[in-house]
Amino acid sequence: MRALILGGTREARDLAALLVGRGDYVISSLAGRVKDPALPVGEVRIGGFGGPEGLTEWIREHSIDVLFDATHPFAEKISQSAATACATTGTPLIHLHRPAWEKQPGETWIEVSSMDEAAAESARFSTVLLTIGRQKLAHFAGCDSTRFLIRCVDPPEVALPPQHDILLSRGPFTIDGEKDLIHSNGIEALVTKNSGGDLTHAKLEAARDLHIPVIIVQRPPLPAEGTLVHTAADAIAALP
Ligand code: NAP
């Protein structure tokens, strides 16, 4: 079987390892955003395809039998491209997205559906920890009266709010480490996407223990095309 994995996540690397272990031909695709990405086993290609048409062409040229969309749940465009390209080529599509976080007892969530809404909610606080990656930070650029501690993996290259400090860090993070960060910076609220998974969950537990609210951006909808699974093993079980 020749599989294309749209990756950039731990789940995608887990899936590549399982498929290679079964003897399948696997090529993983990365967008090329992160300077020093963790690489999966098997072949890797890097860079965009040129929209759904480019991906359609690529699938045909490389005789791909199955496409796994194992991208981050907030990587909306590439999931849509995958749906369109698979519908056009008749290629089976499996979306592997880790489960969303669910609100736990003691947590205070302010649920929003866009970065603009998250920015509007942030403006109610003086000091906010912003943990949304670096691509969407410009949505917060107009928040003049809030100081942001921005934590991301690589340096941001977009417009930023006037009062900010940058903390470059990749995680995983511990609950005690997150509590120290929140406490020592006088953080009153944190902003996160509902990414799900264990690697960055500690901030939610730290916020709960310190009684600070979490402004949480809910996931964009998945395209109708394809089967949704939550683990690499389930992705293999879902193969046609
Ligand atoms: P996006 O908005 O859905 O994608 C923007 C464009 O980047 C796509 O149209 C596509 O270009 C290209 N692209 C995205 N993922 C690709 C992949 N795996 N392989 C080849 N091209 C890809 O995605 P994003 O939010 O910028 O995320 C980019 C990558 O970072 C994703 O692969 C995702 O898994 C990873 N990531 C994202 C987040 C997040 O919070 N968004 C967090 C962690 C990791 P073309 O249209 O030219 O094909």
TrEMBL record:
Pathway this chain belongs to: Cofactor biosynthesis; adenosylcobalamin biosynthesis
GO molecular function: precorrin-6A reductase activity
Keywords: Cobalamin biosynthesis, Oxidoreductase
Catalytic activity, EC: 1.3.1.54
PANTHER family xref list: COBALT-PRECORRIN-6A REDUCTASE
Protein name listed in UniProt: Precorrin-6A reductase
